[in-house]
Structures are given as structure tokens and as C-alpha cells.
From TrEMBL:
Stretches assigned to the Imelysin-like domain: 56-346
Chain segments annotated as coiled-coil in the UniProt record: none
InterPro entries in the record: Imelysin-like, Imelysin_sf
GO cellular component: cell envelope
Signal is among the record's keywords: yes
Pfam families named in the record: Peptidase_M75
Superkingdom per UniProt: Bacteria
Protein name per its UniProtKB record: Imelysin
Localization in the cell: Cell envelope
Length: 429
């Protein structure tokens, strides 16, 4: 409020100081300087909160995947693992995914998640979250190939060949990351079914048949892919760690371009990925275009992406440690309420898709999407229930447009700070 009053006084002085004394001009100049310092201070406070949330968010995701890897290590050494043990790992994947999804809001902002110059030349995002998968490629590795940790890394994003390439794209060989692990854990999810993938059970992981068996290779694949994801999350967490000398976060807080990069990153993520390819891809009814199709985790994907934006919008984060600070809402001016309303719209999901652990389910109210997401996909082309059709309409004509409108709002916000964000990388309707 103080700086708002300062700007008002400056504006008044700017109108009334024509022909005024030198002393009045000096006073006006002083107030302008104070206003500039105030705006800069607000951005600095936001960058500090943003960096704290980033570090805590990635720390939680890392801790979650460490716990999962510990369970996977035990699981993959068993000659006869049980279904309950497999479901425990599936639940740990979902919980770790929930933490990571909130951190996706940090993408496209020249940060360590997608800037290889900050992580020793390793471009982490394609190794962590690429999709859709070429399931045939993974099956070939498991069934006929030799599974090694470095081999999985080397094969990621390599050329896809044969008739199994997603969308005919020969550059979508994806062998590691969240979705590769997801496929190994659940297997193929049939179109319009009412469960996650059912082609994989605990018997697919037994080591009783020897190290050369398909089951042993699947176990090795699961362990190596989880270890790889753990190592990559550690790199990002360390980059945001303020206690580590020379970490990225020190440069981030002092850089004059960090705030601009954040605005551009939010616009690209909301308009290109989250509200772009991921949401628009499912309107044609293709199960392959569902972001987490094997586990049916897609509604959680969309909900926690929105939650990630809400975190930095409010300047708060609730995880293993609570962060409270200076939010983006304090810098958005007239766009504040507009974006707040659209975040609320984007969160209209009931996360009721999980069969392995019912504690992750919710009781759905009437104003939330309660249908299974894979049943909603392309419901205009199939015979869906009245609820599924209504939920599809809500998703298609309210939620997805709201997310894209966030991108447009970021463009307008940036313009008010003298920064131009073009449409490059955005999928705007």
C-alpha cells in the first residue's frame, strides 16, 4: 500500500510541477527514485520466496523418490514379490509424482530443470518427463535387449523405428523418466476402460527364472530407471540449495532477468505444455495422448500443475516444510484477480482414479470433475454417461481455456513491465 501511495504522489507531482521550483523538482525526483527502488524491492522479495519454494518443492520430490527407490531395491531382489508390494511402489510413484508436478511451474524459466548449462551439460527435462512413450521400444529392451543404467540413458530420445512410433514421430524413443517407470509398473491401459493398466502384475518382476529372464530384466529396468530419476532430481535440488557454494540460486536472486524469465516461463508452461499439448491432445479421443495414461494419474497431473502455480501466486508452499513469503499476486496489478479465478477453475478435479491406495481418493462434490479421465477422453465420439459428458464439457470449455488464459494474462503482465512475450511455444486458441 505504501508504494502504491508513492506512485500516486509521483503521478500527481508529474502533472502539477510544470513551472514549479527546483526544490519541488528534486522532491519529485526523489519520490520517483523511491518508487523504482520499491518496485525492485518487491521483485527481490518475490524472487527470494520463489527460490525457497523451488528448493523445498524439489527437496520433497527428491525425498519421495529416494523412499521409492529404497522400496524398489528391496522389491526387485525378491524371487516372488507380492501384489501388495507392487501396489505399495505404485502408490509411492503417485506420491512422488504429486510433489514433482507442483515443481513443473519452474519450467521454461532458464532454470536448471531445462537449462543444461546449469547442470553440467545434462538436459534434465527430456530425461525426466518426456512423453508419449513408444511402448514397443521399451518392450523390446525388456524382452530381447541387455538392460544397463547407462544404456537406458543413451537410448532416451533416440530414433524410433518401426510401426510403434507415437504419432509417426521417429524422435520419440523414451526410455527413462516418470512415464517410462509408469509403464514398467502398470503396462498398457486400454481405451475407455475403468482401471489403470492391467497387463502387469507382480509375477512380471520375479527373479526366480534367472537374470536373463524377461521378469529379471523388468526388475532391473525398474530399479535403474528409478535410480536415474533420483540422481537427476538431486541435481536440480542442489542447484536451488542456498547452502551450497556456487549454486544456481545465488545467481538467480541477483540476476536482472530472473523476473522476466519467470513470467515467460509461466506463459510457456500454461499455454504450451499444461494447457496446450497435454490438454488439447486428449480431445481427439486418442488414449495415447493422455499424459499419464498407464496409471490413470492424469487428473492429478493437471490438478498439481495448477497447485504449483497457486504456490508461487500466493507465495506459500505446504510440504515437509511450509514456506510463507511474497507471492506473485503482489506484482500482477489488475491481472491478480483474473489469474486467481483461473487457477480456481483449473483445480476443478476430484482425484478419484486410484485403485491401489484408496487413501488417495476424495469424495467428489457436484462442481468438480468426478469421472475417470480416460472415460472422458473423446467422449463426444463415444457413448459416455451423462456425468462423463458433462465433465468433458467442463474440462473442454472451462478448464482448458482457463489455463490458456493464464498464458495470455502473463503476456499482458509482462507488457506492463516493459517485457514482450510472444506466442512462440504457446498453443493458444
Amino acid at each position: 500500500m505504501f508504494w502504491k501511495r508513492i506512485f500516486t504522489i509521483v503521478l500527481t507531482l508529474g502533472i502539477s510541477t510544470i513551472g514549479c521550483t527546483k526544490q519541488d523538482n528534486n522532491e519529485a525526483s526523489l519520490l520517483v527514485s523511491l518508487a523504482v527502488v520499491g518496485a525492485s524491492g518487491n521483485q527481490a522479495a518475490f524472487l527470494e520466496t520463489y527460490s525457497q519454494i523451488a528448493f523445498q518443492n524439489y527437496s520433497d520430490a527428491y525425498a519421495d523418490i529416494v523412499l521409492m527407490r529404497e522400496k524398489v531395491t528391496i522389491f526387485t531382489q525378491k524371487a516372488s514379490p507380492t501384489l501388495s508390494e507392487l501396489n505399495e511402489i505404485r502408490t509411492l510413484w503417485r506420491k512422488a509424482r504429486r510433489s514433482y508436478l507442483q515443481a513443473e511451474i519452474f519450467r521454461f524459466s532458464q532454470g536448471p530443470v531445462d537449462n543444461p548449462n546449469l547442470t553440467g551439460g545434462v538436459e534434465l527435462e527430456p530425461l525426466m518427463n518426456s512423453w508419449p512413450l513408444d511402448e514397443g521400444y521399451i518392450d523390446t529392451v525388456v524382452l530381447t535387449g541387455t538392460v544397463t543404467k547407462q544404456g537406458l540413458i543413451d537410448a532416451n530420445q533416440g530414433d524410433c523405428s518401426g510401426g510403434t512410433c507415437p504419432d509417426g514421430d521417429t524422435a520419440k524413443n523414451i526410455s527413462v523418466g516418470w512415464h517410462a517407470i509408469e509403464y514398467i509398473l502398470w503396462g498398457v491401459d486400454a481405451t475407455n476402460n475403468s482401471t489403470p493398466g492391467t497387463t502387469i502384475t507382480q509375477t512380471n518382476f520375479t527373479t526366480a527364472n534367472g537374470s536373463g529372464s524377461t521378469q529379471a530384466k523388468r526388475s532391473a529396468y525398474l530399479l535403474y530407471a528409478t535410480e536415474i530419476l533420483e540422481s537427476h532430481l538431486l541435481l536440480i535440488k542442489n542447484a536451488w540449495d542456498p547452502s551450497l557454494s556456487g549454486s544456481y540460486v545465488q545467481k538467480f536472486k541477483s540476476s536482472s532477468t530472473s523476473f522476466e524469465n519467470i513470467l515467460r516461463g509461466i506463459a510457456k508452461f500454461a499455454g504450451g505444455e499444461w494447457g496446450g499439448e497435454r490438454m488439447t491432445g486428449v480431445f481427439g479421443g486418442d488414449q495415447e495422448e493422455e499424459h499419464s495414461c498407464f496409471s490413470d494419474n492424469t487428473k492429478a497431473d493437471f490438478y498439481y500443475d495448477a497447485k504449483g502455480l497457486e504456490n508461487i501466486f500466493n507465495g506459500t508452499y505446504i510440504g515437509s516444510k511450509t514456506i510463507t513469503g511474497y507471492g506473485l499476486k503482489n506484482l500482477l496489478g489488475k491481472e491478480t484477480n483474473y489469474i486467481k479465478d483461473r487457477i480456481t477453475t483449473a483445480e476443478q478435479f476430484c482425484l478419484n482414479e486410484f485403485s491401489e491406495d484408496t487413501s488417495l481418493n476424495q469424495t467428489c462434490s457436484g462442481n468438480l470433475i468426478s469421472s475417470r479421465f480416460d472415460r472422458m477422453i473423446g467422449t463426444v465420439n463415444v457413448s459416455g454417461s451423462a456425468t462423463e459428458n458433462a465433465d468433458y464439457q467442463l474440462f473442454r470449455y472451462q478448464i482448458q481455456p482457463a489455463v490458456q488464459e493464464i498464458a495470455k494474462s502473463m503476456q499482458r503482465t509482462a507488457a506492463s513491465f516493459g517485457v514482450s512475450i510472444g506466442d512462440d511455444g504457446l498453443v493458444l486458441e
